Sequence to fold (190 residues):
Amino acid sequence: MAADAVSDEELLRSFIAGSDGSFTELMRRHEDRIFNLAFRMTGDRSDALDATQDTFVTAFRQAATFRFDSAFGTWLYRVGINACHDLLRKRKRWALQSEDETEREPDRAAVDLDESVAARLDLTRALAELPPEYREAVVMHDLGGVPYEEIARLTDARIGTVKSRISRGRRRLAELLEHTAPSTGSKDVT
Fold:
């Protein structure tokens, strides 16, 4: 039977029973999705790689705690969000004043990037400025395709709260992106 024909839950059961190769297959299936989530949540490639690694280490260690009452991918997504929150808290504690200089460097580099890459960078920066509860809901729903009901369950929030967070997050994103839209005039580079 092909590996793709086996469900995530069957692979997880196999891993719990002792098959390390099953966890490797789960990682292969989900690594891109978790990395994209982490990148959107952290706004930094290096941090996203760290959060992705932390997600899979936690999933490896906590696999036996999975209750099989939801999809494995949904549970893993929640583990990934928690890893991002942990990393962002640590980063906030260790932030230095030189962070302002570091944040300006991508702006200079973006001048040479094509428009789609620059737009993704703008989106990443804008997402990073959202309050965590808005960012989490927007990333899960709009970028991860997680349904409202599942977000409500994962975040222990009411469905109305989830919808409100997504709506407010989208509105705030639009405002932030409007302010970062490139001007048509010439820039004075000194």
Remarks:
- The CA atoms of residues 69 and 78 lie 14 Å apart.
